[in-house]
Amino acid sequence: MDIQRSGAAILANPDSKMASLRQMNMPWFQTPFFKTLLEEADLAEDDKKLVATYAQDGYLIIDAKIPELDSFCERLIAALAPLYRGHGRIQDAWKENTDAKALALLPEIDRVLRLLYQRDPIPFQTLNFAEGTEQHTHSDTVHFHSVPHGFMCGVWIALQDIDATCGPLHVYPGSHRMPAWDFHDLGLPSGRESYQHYEDCMQAYVEAAGLKKHIVTMKKGQAVIWSATLLHGGEHIEERSKSRHSQVTHYYFSDCLYYTPMFSDPYIGKMQMRTITDIRSGKIVPNMYAGKPISLFSDIPTPASIAPAATAVAEVLRRLLDRAKRWTR
Length: 329
Ligand SMILES: O=C(O)CCC(=O)C(=O)O
Ligand SMILES: [Fe+2]
Known about the structure:
329 residues, Jelly Rolls, 2 domains, six-stranded antiparallel beta sheet, 8 helices, 15 strands, disordered N terminus, binds 2-oxoglutaric acid, binds fe (ii) ion
């Protein structure tokens, strides 16, 4: 599979002139050509349905196909139990625990993500939860964003049956069509101090847009895949005694630049880049822009780097103008 060519790569005739015109630097399900691309794609009908559902709703629920499901979940839950130490979550358990790593590398998830994004999926972070997070509605793009946009997703796997009372996930189907708003779009300064206001804005947005919340109840071994801009969060925990064992793996895709919008101001050249580790290999993934590692672009001036020179030039011009004014008086 030619991962550089995105949607066009799976056209019946990828070399036709139309294929190159339909080529866009974004996930194929977000392009205006998606309907045609899907019709012409050389894919099984079931797989076409999966991509169509993802394009429509912004998320998918699938069977993660975990071998020996019951014993696997029991072993992972027991191994992680002492590591929570009063916290609701464990970040990057994959570094110590081979089962957590195996979940991030599941072949069925890899297969479906390749289908949805037509690029190499890179698992780069795991979070394990023993209970509900009650996390407010958000899109992951404030934390994890990519250039080109949209090449990020979350995969949340239920390690037990998840009912409506244990603080399940909620999603807003269709909300992924909103732009990847960063703090600047909401009139907020970058930085952690804006986060709570961002959450309030997202709540106000879903109400204003009339979006309907869907509570994601699940069977053990099912996975929900959500796209970068999909609004989601953790429901209120109605029964405090209940556990909610789950693992979420966040994925980027190959050949992108990876950054944290929450701490960035791209319009003035301030990018908080991410150095991500590919869980599959344990190796750092190069940040790429337009097919080249960004270290090759380090000499390109940014607004911030040319600011001192620009100030000096402005000062010289101001003095010349002053002198010219005096001379013409
Ligand atoms: O598990 C949850 O309740 C929310 C998780 C989440 O938002 C995430 O991992 O991106
Ligand atoms: Fe999230």
